[in-house]
Amino acid sequence: MKQSLYDQFIERYGASNQPVRTFFAPGRVNLIGDHTDYNGGLVFPCAIEYGTTLMIRPTESLSYQLASTNFDLIAVLSADQANRKYGDHWINYPLGVLQQFVARAPLDGGFECLYSGNVPNGGGLSSSAAIEVVTAFAINSLFDRKLDLLELVKMSQRAENDFVGVQCGIMDQYAVAFAQRDHAMQLDCQTLDCEQIPLTLGDYRIVLINTNQRRELSESKFNERVTETQQALEILAPVSGASQLAHVTPEQLAEHRQRFEQQPELLKRATHVVSEQQRVRRAVEALRNNDLARFGELMFESHASLRDDYEVSSDALNTLVELAAGTQGVLGARLTGAGFGGCTVNLVHEQQLQHFEQSIGDAYQQRTGLSADFYQITPSQGVRELHT
Ligand code: GLA
Prior knowledge:
Layout: H1 5-13, E1 21-30, E2 42-43, E3 45-59, E4 63-68, E5 75-78, H2 92-104, E6 110-117, H3 127-142, H4 149-164, H5 171-178, E7 183-188, E8 194-198, E9 204-210, H6 218-240, H7 250-255, H8 264-288, H9 292-308, H10 315-325, E10 330-335, E11 343-349, H11 353-368, E12 373-377, E13 384-386
Parallel strand pairs: 4-6
Antiparallel strand pairs: 1-3, 1-13, 2-7, 3-6, 4-5, 7-8, 9-11, 9-12, 10-11
The chain binds alpha-D-galactopyranose.
């Protein structure tokens, strides 16, 4: 029989008179609005049921013990050792968060913890944000730091920007923290105004397909896109008055496109961000009007823009979206998250689910030699303590 996580915790760390507490943070899927968050734009994510569970217990000794059921290594670190990055190891995510707390005030004790995640790895479903946010939430609670959830979100994002070295926006950490069951959130990443919108999909279901394609150079290419959009903004800010690229209007971009003569690729990046901002608005509007067909069209348009203008798609992702477009009962499909591999998100009629999985799975395997994984998801709740 499979050992419970609690049993594994006790087997690893032994019994003590301190309570073991359990926390959970989900992964997320972004329904539309990618690469807009770090440009001050709109996004529309929801949380998924898959996520990271963290069992944690305080210790008197000032050391940190970190283990995961997903990886072999166990780390036992002094405060000094916890203050640096370890290659591209997963412990960088909790350590980056820990550093954020310690920078404010040292912790008055240590902890031992065990993580266990079931977010498909490398799927672009924010498994790393789930680790960051569950760690921040747990430390805040364990050491009675009394920071509010938004502060924990910002600390988690900073851990990723400053410690891990990915210049991500705030979408993933925010979604993982604030998600509500059966809702998706329209988040303005500049003002952080957030509107929870009921995800009423009638006979349709959200299905994720993992390409299972290895993501290569995704971090460096991600940072390259961040830089490119900053450069595009430098060109457009003086003539548009916008302080964020997502606030440039399509008309302003059209009027000033000759400014990009020397850098056509920057024009393409700007075209994606400016048009994606409009698409999020329209998609949310369509949802409010129960116009799922329109929502689906916008998903396809978003994918095309990420593929052609933002150039963050891959052959595997394009194959899955193309196959979905030709399958009965599919209203929309697009890559979700950063791209460069990972998952597509699809809007599929419930009566076609079996056919969808079978026919796309087979055709994908034939075309790419890869086998895809399918996950039907319902929007779930953000970070929380589990009282088992
Ligand atoms: C990654 C980043 C997010 C966001 C998406 C693309 O998931 O972590 O901040 O930029 O890519 O929308």
